[in-house]
Design goal:
Blueprint: E1 6-10, E2 19-25, E3 29-30, H1 32-36, H2 42-50, E4 59-63, E5 72-79, H3 86-98, E6 105-109, H4 119-133, E7 155-159, H5 163-188, H6 196-204, E8 212-216, H7 218-224, H8 227-233, E9 241-248, E10 257-267, H9 287-301, E11 307-317, E12 328-331, E13 337-340, H10 347-362, E14 367-371, H11 376-381, E15 386-390, H12 393-406, E16 410-412, H13 417-420, E17 430-431, H14 439-448, E18 456-460, H15 483-493
Parallel strand pairs: 1-7, 2-5, 2-6, 6-7, 10-11, 10-14, 13-17, 14-18, 15-16
Antiparallel strand pairs: 2-3, 4-5, 8-9, 9-11, 12-13, 15-18
Helix pairs in contact: 3-4, 4-5, 5-9, 8-10, 9-15, 10-14, 12-15
Amino acid sequence: MSQRPSIAFAKFSVPKNGTVFVLSADEGGLSDAAKACDPGKTLERAFPVAEFTGKFASTVEVLAPEGASLDRLVAIGAGKVSGLDEYAWLKLGGTIAGSLRKATDVAVVLEIVGASPSGKEAASLAAGILLRSYAFDKYKTRKDKDEAEPKKPVKVTIHTAAPTAAKKAFADAEAVMDGVLLARDLVNEPANVLGPVEFAARAKELEALGVKVEILAEKEMKKLGMGSLLGVAQGSPRGARMAIMQWNGGKPKDSPVAFVGKGVTFDTGGNSMKPASGMEDMKGDMGGAAAVTGLMHALAARKAKANVVGVIGLVENAVDGHAQRPGDIVTSMSGQTIEVLNTDAEGRLVLADALWYCNDRFQPKFMVNLATLTGAIMVALGQHHAGLFSNNDELAQRLTAAGQATQERLWRMPLGAEYDKLIDSKNADMKNIGGRYGGAIIAAQFLQRFVKETPWAHLDIAGTAMGSPSNEINQSWGSGFGVRLLDRLVRDNYEQ
């Protein structure tokens, strides 16, 4: 795997060697601290030549600057000072990480004309460096002579006016970023390495952070009547699992909040098989379960003052003589029967039992489920918003606000009785698909039948959890979408 940068915070002193990054606001020029790093004024001479004005995320680089013993001196455009919110600081950190190249000794001068970056903002910049530095390369072998020796991890020192506050804020931020990176790892792993059993084992590792983890195997799930989930798994020799993760950081008698994830570790489509082209991407069909697992890591690592439950249903949807057939009727844990007309509409079958189990056992304040559920949501929203469906306006509003704050954005989609009629079945209580239109809505209507009156939201993250567009803080195929969003939801609304 890519080597993780080492990040420290310090009071400003003029760096003597290595690579130095300074910030320049839009039309603001360099701060006094930045100028002290550039006694030969090489950057100031380079700015007009490069037409550099401080535009956000633009860069100017000088090698071996005159009058200094530095290797490189890099100016990063910070844009307008008024636009430097939390996400902007993350992106600036990502821009710095993207410009590191082979540097091993790096200083970032966090001083900017017209602003006084706080410790929290310094921590956000550091978090952006971590996120951008991630790369999933564990299966690459090194044959180039130049790469025979492992590269030393880069050491980044952020020079700030508030190093103590920055260090404290970064401890909290790093816990959340580690949750994001865990989710990315899980989504990126190939399905031959990460099946239901192996995923459950990864969830079990959260016990080291104080999370209580239970793993249900097929025998226990069959006893509970989870025919909907087990029907999806019956074509695979790898079995099925359900992981139940509990973080009890709130008051003992407080009802928990709950998050439920779809964990289809590979989805062939079953007997309703997908086309061969692009099927390799279906190793990421457990992006919802990855996000829930990453969230539980984040909450436990930062000692969140809330009671939180995470439930993930883990299956492989395979093609086999034992696999589920179109037309089969299964009985869910709720007792409701489902006619399976399309075995590729399997995620909702997994979530049906996971939602019912979570609601029945824990009686949470609310449930939010995440799933790479439909291609239809990508047709509707592209890859920059996830779909939000909810039976509760307050929960939907809080999720939307958390999405705006983290820029893991959501767009609310409709629910309604007229859509519900489309999944009525002549042969069972419901069928698992509707007609040609409104596929993402129909999937949400299906899930709503398994939540009773509990406040609930469904996030369809098919376009955002995997293969989403690269940006300043993510160059990975698996994005870890949902971890920062849901951590913010809990942090802003449900902690004591």
